[in-house]
């Protein structure tokens, strides 16, 4: 048998994004009035663990049976579901988080919008569908992520919804979030149109203090005005994060955590942050451990945290120091790391008030020096039979010399 076309609706993100004029990623459907047996008979493949979700045999789009849910325990597994064939489309839409996510569309393009989603798109409001919003802490993360995606269009969180987010925080629900899920939302926010809006939204409801206290505490900590016209370290972190939005995800993450050390600078030395790079390393490692951040993200983040000042000051560095920097970055084995490091440092340098379009000549300077160091001809050293430590020292010396002459060349070409 086949399913009656009239009982299938496009729902959620696809409807929302279509109305917003944004590219539609994945299409989710709701099937009303069917049983799991009928779905299986129609050739759909069951995939849901907690509740019945099916994949279309050809398109592989997700088809879920209309359902209602009831909170039974803390955390987002703490729900009981009802997927009986009596559940209506309106019932199903009522359990969704935001009005803009609670619209459905028929196959011939008619909108079903019982909770005013279209109006909220017009008003640019992220608004909860019902008080049941406060039953699932994942929604706090989702709203923050939607802000990172929609803030540039003028969207904001409705004050009543923000209140429910605060309530979730005060009820201790944020602690029940699993690390993997939090990481997934952080990661995806970093490459949205306004990544900072993710963190600002979490901060506005008090969730940032629980999820990322290392970033939350940066607000209110001053930096030297000469280097940081924005003064506030939290603001710098946000500006830098936004500068990194088009970079690879691991680079954007490195930018996100590059100044965590400034959060533990002793009061009496402020607004100076001498030594914040080394101080930040254990904090970066702790964040990575907490969210089970992939190792290659962690490696780059630690390197950027530890060595970013050397990029900013590279024009003044001795060739030996530059060579050592490339070695520390593991650049001779993984040249890409040097490029990623440079991009992260540039986001830091331009992530300051009024400096978004500032030139960062250090970037190409570093690229040129690295190229020179990498391309030295080691053949004569092998031919001379050098080995072990002696060989290592000789290669290093070759690289230092290459950096030295490249520096000279760059100075003459720009003077
Ligand atoms: P994206 O563009 O990231 O896919 P989305 O809104 O489509 O956004 P999905 O995770 O694909 O997000 O979920 C599909 C729909 O399911 C949502 O639009 C929303 O209606 C509903 N939904 C998802 N997660 C939740 C949740 N935690 N609470 C309530 N409704 C949810
Ligand atoms: Mg979706």
From TrEMBL:
Residues noted as binding CTP in the record, renumbered to the chain: 13, 16, 96, 142, 145
Gene3D superfamilies with a match to the protein in the record: Beta Polymerase, domain 2, cca-adding enzyme, domain 2
Catalytic activity: a tRNA precursor + 2 CTP + ATP = a tRNA with a 3' CCA end + 3 diphosphate; a tRNA with a 3' CCA end + 2 CTP + ATP = a tRNA with a 3' CCACCA end + 3 diphosphate
UniProt GO MF annotations: CCA tRNA nucleotidyltransferase activity; hydrolase activity
Record's cofactor remark: Magnesium is required for nucleotidyltransferase activity. Nickel for phosphatase activity.
Domains as described in the record: Comprises two domains: an N-terminal domain containing the nucleotidyltransferase activity and a C-terminal HD domain associated with both phosphodiesterase and phosphatase activities.
Record protein name field: Multifunctional CCA protein
Organism of origin: Marinicella sediminis
Gene: cca
């Amino acid at each position: 048998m086949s399913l009656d076309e009239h009982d299938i609706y496009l729902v959620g993100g696809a409807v929302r994004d279509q109305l917003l004029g944004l590219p539609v990623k994945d299409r989710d459907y709701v099937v009303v009035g069917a049983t799991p047996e009928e779905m299986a008979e129609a050739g759909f493949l069951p995939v849901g663990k907690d509740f019945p979700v099916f994949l279309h045999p050809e398109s592989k789009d997700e088809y879920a049976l209309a359902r209602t849910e009831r909170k039974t325990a803390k955390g987002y597994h703490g729900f009981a579901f009802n997927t009986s064939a009596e559940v209506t489309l309106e019932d199903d839409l009522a359990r969704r988080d935001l009005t803009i996510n609670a619209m459905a569309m028929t196959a011939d393009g008619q909108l079903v919008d019982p909770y005013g989603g279209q109006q909220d798109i017009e008003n640019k409001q992220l608004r909860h569908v019902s008080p049941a919003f406060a039953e699932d802490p994942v929604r706090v993360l989702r709203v923050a992520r939607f802000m990172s995606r929609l803030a540039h269009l003028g969207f904001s969180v409705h004050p009543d919804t923000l209140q429910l987010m605060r309530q979730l925080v005060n009820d201790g629900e944020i602690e029940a979030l699993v690390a993997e899920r939090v990481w997934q939302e952080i990661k995806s926010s970093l490459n949205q149109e306004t990544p900072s809006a993710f963190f600002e939204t979490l901060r506005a409801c008090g969730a940032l203090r629980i999820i990322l206290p290392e970033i939350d505490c940066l607000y209110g900590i001053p930096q030297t005005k000469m280097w940081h016209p924005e003064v506030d370290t939290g603001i710098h972190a946000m500006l830098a994060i936004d500068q990194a939005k088009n970079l690879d995800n691991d680079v954007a993450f490195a930018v996100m955590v590059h100044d965590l050390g400034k959060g533990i600078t002793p009061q009496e030395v402020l607004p100076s942050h001498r030594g914040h790079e080394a101080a930040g390393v254990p904090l970066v490692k702790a964040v990575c451990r907490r969210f089970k951040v992939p190792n290659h993200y962690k490696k780059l983040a630690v390197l950027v945290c530890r060595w970013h000042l050397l990029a900013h000051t590279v024009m003044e560095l001795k060739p030996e120091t530059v060579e050592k920097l490339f070695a520390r970055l593991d650049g001779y084995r993984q040249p890409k790391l040097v490029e990623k490091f440079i991009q992260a440092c540039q986001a830091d340098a331009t992530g300051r008030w009024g400096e978004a379009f500032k030139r960062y000549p250090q970037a190409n300077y570093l690229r040129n020096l690295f190229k020179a160091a990498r391309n030295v001809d080691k053949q004569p050293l092998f031919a001379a039979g050098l080995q072990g430590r002696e060989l290592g020292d000789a290669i290093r010396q070759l690289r230092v010399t290459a950096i030295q002459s490249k520096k000279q060349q760059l100075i003459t070409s720009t003077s």
